[in-house]
Design a protein that fits this description.
alpha+beta; three-stranded antiparallel β-sheet; 1 helix; 3 strands; 21% helix; MbtH-like_dom; MbtH-like_sf; MbtH family protein
């Protein structure tokens, strides 16, 4: 089930986001919608996740 997106902000940081949610200002979808595990792999592969 395609439940998530990978978002990227203007600084190049990546974040997981639920596919049903509105994309926040300053972010854009760069992958998905796709299953959660696929989105996690995409973020891990790139290594640019946003700090928590």
């Amino acid at each position: 089930m395609d439940t998530h997106l990978v978002l990227e902000n203007d600084r190049g940081r990546l974040s997981l986001w639920p596919a049903w949610g509105a994309v926040p200002a300053g972010w854009r979808a760069v992958f998905g919608p796709a299953p959660h595990p696929a989105c996690l792999r995409r973020v891990a592969r790139d290594g640019r996740s946003a700090p928590r």
